[in-house]
Amino acid sequence: MSGHVHTVRSWLGQLLESGDRPSGSLAYRTNRKAIWRGDIPEKYARLVDRVPGQRILELGAAEGVLSLLLAPSKEKVFALEMKPERHAEALRLQSYWQEQGRDVGRCEMVLGDIKQHLHLLRSVDTLLAVRSIYYLRGDLQQVFDAVGRSVANVVLCGNKNRARKYYDANGDPADHLGKSNYLATLEGMTSLLEACGYAIVSTVAEGDPIVIGAKNISPPN
Ligand SMILES: C[S@@+](CC[C@H](N)C(=O)[O-])C[C@H]1O[C@@H](n2cnc3c(N)ncnc32)[C@H](O)[C@@H]1O
Predict the structure, then answer these.
(1) How many angstroms does the Cα of residue 169 sit away from the middle of ligand 1?
(2) Is 188 contained in some domain?
(3) Residue 219 DSSP one-character state
(4) Which one, of 155, 191, 199, lies nearest residue 67 by Cα?
(5) What would the DSSP string read from start to end of 39-106?
(6) How far, in Å, is the centroid of ligand 1 from the Cα of 89?
(7) Does residue 21 sit within a domain?
(8) Which one, 26, 88, 108, 182, has the greatest CB density within 10 A?
(9) Ligand 1 near 159 CB (within 6 A)
């Protein structure tokens, strides 16, 4: 209990110190100052060298940190986010980093829902989704059918907390929350990609699990 109180106090302290409104993911909010000065938390940094391809679409890019980190080494990165306040923060971070001389101009922040932006899948060779596919719920199949038709590589990163909940519930797939938590596990992400015809090229089990799949699709024009 005292540990919990300490954690909440420490989080509130950081918010008050930075003067931020409480919007955005916890990882972003608690590290906002460090991220803006370029001191990147491991949560984002661990993924940068794992993303294959030259044209990337990040689904659920939130404040755009990972997409912006990828931009210098890629031809094009679309950072798709449906929440306007997160998209707006991503634009602010991009402008600030550009003022600081960072090469992030090839990242395009896109506001919207993937369901209205399926056309973007035809212009990329990699789909990247971190802690986001379980929000697709009833739209998951439609979105991944479209992904499987035109995207050569998929990088999925799940959520270790949701995965633990799924396994603690003995993976009962009839459980409403269990269904979406399954998609946060290594097993669930692997099964989704294999069902879409991807061969699994690598996985990381530690921390938030990561699954990377590939299939033979001609590169986008
Ligand atoms: C849990 S957050 C993860 C954000 C970020 N990838 C990270 O790991 O910090 C999931 C994000 O996906 C976005 N999202 C969920 N469904 C989406 C959809 N259908 N189209 C675009 N973005 C979506 C949410 O608005 C949210 O910002």
Answers:
(1) 25
(2) yes
(3) P
(4) 155
(5) ---HHHHHHHTT--SSEEEEET-TT-HHHHHHGGGSSEEEEEES-HHHHHHHHHHHHHHHHTT---TT
(6) 14
(7) no
(8) 182
(9) no
Whether ligand 1 lies within 6 angstroms of the CB of 87 is answered as no
Query: Which residue, chain included where needed, has tokens 């799940």?
Result: 158
For residue 60, which amino acid is it? G
Query: Domain tally for the chain?
Result: 1
Tell me the CATH number at 144. Answer: 3.40.50.150
Ligand 1 nearest atom to the CA of residue 113, by list position: 20
Distance of alpha carbon 123 from alpha carbon 119, whole angstroms: 8
Query: How much is the pLDDT for 179?
Result: 76
pLDDT in tens, the chain (221 residues): 344 443 443 343 333 333 334 456 888 999 999 999 999 999 999 999 999 999 999 999 999 999 999 999 999 999 999 999 999 999 999 999 999 999 999 999 999 999 999 999 999 999 999 999 999 999 999 999 999 999 999 999 999 999 999 988 876 656 666 778 999 999 999 999 999 999 999 999 999 999 999 999 876 66
